[in-house]
Amino acid sequence: MTPELNVGILLNELFVDTVRVSLPLFRPELCLVATIVLLLLCRMLPLLRYLDSGGIALGGVCFAAWYAYVDFLSIGSQVGDSLLPATAVRTELFGGLLVFDSFTAFLRLVLAGFLVLYVVLTKLSGIPDREDGADFYSLVLGSSLGMCLMVSANNLLIVFMAVEMASVPSYALAGMLKGRPASSEAALKYAIYGAGAAGVMLYGISLISGVLGTLVLPDVSFEMSRVLAAGGTSGSTMVLCLGGLMLSVGLAFKLSAVPFHFWCPDVFEGAAAEVGAFLSVASKAAAIALLVRVAFAFSTPASDDAVGMSANAVAITDARHFVVYVIGLFAAVTCTFGNLAAYGQTNMKRLLAYSTIAHAGYLMMAVAAAVAMVAISPQGARDAVSAVAFYLATYLFMNLGAFGIVALLRNRLKSEEISSYAGLIHVSPGIVIAMAVVLVSLIGLPPLAGFVAKFLVFSSLVDAITSGAESPLMLSLLVIGGFNTVISLFYYLRVLKVMTFDPVPEDRVSEPFPFVSISGAMITGLVLPVVIFGVFWSGLYAAAHLAGVIAS
Questions:
Q1: pTM of the model
Q2: Under a CB-based contact definition with an 8 Å cutoff, are residues 79 and 102 in contact?
Q3: Do residues 209 and 220 touch, judged by C-beta distance below 8 A?
Q4: Which residues are bridge partners to 216 per DSSP?
Q5: Is 257 helix (H, G, I), strand (E, B) or coil?
Q6: Which residues of the chain have pLDDT under 50?
Q7: Domain segments of the chain: what residues?
Q8: How far apart, in whole angstroms, are the C-alpha atoms of residue 300 and residue 386?
Q9: What is the gyration radius of the CA atoms in the chain, in angstroms?
Q10: Do residues 323 and 247 lie in contact, with contact meaning Cβ atoms separated by under 8 Å?
């Protein structure tokens, strides 16, 4: 067979695979791409400039959410609630660059659902204005497209490209407030930190691929165990460790994990509250999902190796210990620092920024537990990943609700300082009750969704302890998590104390917030799920449990 025929057959197979398999499972992302193109045309063509960019964006994300929902139902019917192996419902897309499984389907549905709520919120809050609407929504959807790729990445190069696709538009979003030096400063800081993290991350990927000879995530653990078990030199081991740490820098930057968190408070304070909501929820969800994929890729037992099984098992166990301790250390420091640093904040957006950092720490605790149990207790690892998925789904409503209230109050009070909320209970009791619900849920108190989410995270740590998976570390994380939950009471409740007990400032001239309005209905729509999923949480957990198949 001639080389020309070989190339022709290869291209034909690639075309058939793309059209029949990859594109049908890529419909939510294609909806986002089509919406971005239409928004850019609205910006470029005079006849289309008068179209409502927010309405176009809302229509596009609704289609994306619908296709994400259909795909989730489809894969959910295949997985059910059984212990089928993850490979049984795993489809590689575009030649193995991306993967579609129940984890992808659930997280993509969470991101798409967030986008629908987010676009509605921005329409109600007035950011962006009509002139910049097409640019704003193009950036939001472009960044969201990168986040969808992060969730489904199956190759280290796609990991890097997806992180950059999600990050670069968000740099511009941070500077969208015209005429405000703080917004421009936030964008500049964000871009500088992001560029540095991207360079370090890419170099780490090059080191890993140079030693292992592969970029495909499912092959990483096999190649790593083979290299280490074959008597790899101390130099190759050191290069792998260094590459893994450098890769973790990029992930830690997206998670705003300590010590790569410095950009987060300044960006949240300088940017619009709506941009802070986007970075706090969508960016964190995608980053945690990517962390789960990368962590499992570096620690899953290479059971398909027929030769040197025991040596390979020992090698991958050592690698898993390294991954667990790195994630656990990040989790403990990040959670503690975020909660302690929130104490002295006087700006509500800055307080929520440190709250975001702390919650990233809680999520990483569950990821560490899942990785620790992957070889010892697959069911425990699946439950831990399910806890992460449930946490992200409920965190969507909690944090978007908090930032939405801040944005709407900003339009009334012309301030985002906590002191400006003094005595709001007397003029806007509905908005104070809504804020109380989301803040108490962020603390993790019953009977709200935040309590169930934290309970599941701590349960995963208990499962790791009882199964003997890194018990000392898991016990330490459990104690640290409980301690941080207690200390977070004070700065969240301080906001409620200002709203309810502090006297109304004499110079306040703003009108009360009309809770019986479209904006009030939007806030109610964000707050009600926080209450509902705190009481009737089994349905959402069943959906999240499907995502945990990745650990089976």
A1: 0.92
A2: yes
A3: no
A4: 155
A5: coil
A6: 1, 81-88, 304-309
A7: 3-551
A8: 17
A9: 23
A10: no
